[in-house]
Amino acid sequence: MKALNYINGAWCESKSGMTAPVINPADGKTIGHVTLSTEEDVRQAVRAAKAAQKEWALVPAPQRAEVLYKVGFLLKEKKERLARILTMEMGKVIEEARGEVQEGIDMAFYMAGEGRRLFGETTPSELKDKFAMSVRVPVGVVGIITPWNFPIAIATWKSFPAIVAGNAVVWKPASETPLMAQELAKIFEEAGLPKGVFNVVNGTGPTVGSALVEHPDVRAISFTGSNEVGRGIAEKCGRLLKKVSLEMGGKNAVIVMDDADLSLAVEGILWSAFGTSGQRCTSCSRVIVHEKVKEELEERLLEAMKTLKVGNGLDETVKVGPVINEAALKKIHEYVQIGKAEGARLLAGGEILAEGELAKGFYYAPTLFTDVKPDMRIAKEEIFGPVLSVMRAGSLEEAIAINNAVDYGLSSAIFTRDVNRAFRAMRDLDTGIVYINAGTTGAEIHLPFGGTKGTGNGHRDSGTASLDVFTEWRSVYVDFSGKLQRAQIDIDPESGREENPGSAQGDAGIGKEGGKA
Ligand code: NDP
């Protein structure tokens, strides 16, 4: 299979004529090739998007939404096929791949519903015979840059709200997962989206991603990926006064209190630490446990980890698939060495798995460290692999302080049966997402997704919050008085307010009352 660019409703090779292989991380086999684009390919896509957007913005939003309903039904119809490609392309186990496609389906129907909402506000005017409202208008052409760990879900979180709001999209998928991008573009094509509204340009971040960020006709960038790349994009967008939304991962923790249901906590920790081989931005990489139950929790965790079968994600009995590539495998292993050198105690795992069939892919053993201190690198930096660090706390306050003492702020969780502790945690945990009696993963698409500090820059994916990224607010005033009425100045005297309060102090006059521009 060859992943091509999709520009202006046509499938095309890049101008460079160069390609790169797409590798199945489960067995190292080449499952396709991807065209590697140039800056000129980006310019061509942006031109097409700009032209298409003008027409698309004039289509009534409920009609725009009809395309998303079709996209939702097509995703549903093709769910199993898509899930299998997803597993082969990035390695997550098939059950999770199905869940990821379902996220896209949910997003399609949810955002299609927005076609009949896209609410603005109506509000009273301060003047007689005048009407005031705010409406959302599309920003224009939006650039979307996504990672490989959720190759379809993240693209749907970003492109569906953008499209229903009347924008055109140019999408640069991750180099590792172009096949899923191709599948999503095919679905838009089949659903009848007008040409040019959704475009895909494959290629590397430094070439294609940068060109998209720098292009003057791209009015907003929505990015998910590493903190380092996100910062660079934000700097460029700042210079260009371009809207930019960033989602850049986390160092997420589960807090386990001494009153917790430990069986439930173990299940939640296992799922959120080792699901997707620890490569979710919401993956749990720290457990902060009350000292009274630390030993018991560790014993139970070690027991439960024995049930985690590692292997090819297409095997329904496998719980932990491969990591994305060899570089990731090396990075994870390096962090394990760092952890040992820092004095953390390795309880399980800590090795690259290379026995039998596993030698062909990129597998890391689910790993558990204990006696980890908050200032250790493994407790602070995003490892993005199946490595979990257990830390001790003597109280809820201490646990929350440890949770908050990292540069990221995406997701946190607490297991407790005490409603007072639960509510204190909801208030004091400094993350965009908080779970009570569940692990750190499991976001639902109709709530805002994103976080504080190094995780983001104040914007959110998903939910109606995502519409704020892809729309501008326009305030509209309709004066039906037939005369010039000046806001803040021509106030009706019968309203009881002084017509010109400044004059009482003898300082009336043009420029004194001013009023807003
Ligand atoms: P990156 O941030 O490098 O990649 C994310 C996306 O940005 C990819 O499409 C990438 O393109 C693109 N990109 C890279 N450089 C630029 C650039 N200069 N300008 C514009 N776009 C660019 O993440 P990686 O996939 O390399 O993963 C590295 C680490 O990032 C992980 O180990 C993890 O810590 C973190 N991460 C966090 C994620 C999250 O969900 N928040 C998701 C993925 C990674 P391409 O890769 O094709 O060159």
UniProtKB/TrEMBL annotation:
Residues 508-517 have a biased composition (Gly residues). Belongs to the aldehyde dehydrogenase family. This is 3-sulfolactaldehyde dehydrogenase. Signal peptide: none annotated. It catalyses: (2S)-3-sulfolactaldehyde + NAD(+) + H2O = (2S)-3-sulfolactate + NADH + 2 H(+). It comes from Caldibacillus debilis GB1. GO terms for molecular function: aldehyde dehydrogenase (NAD+) activity. The keyword Acyltransferase does not apply.
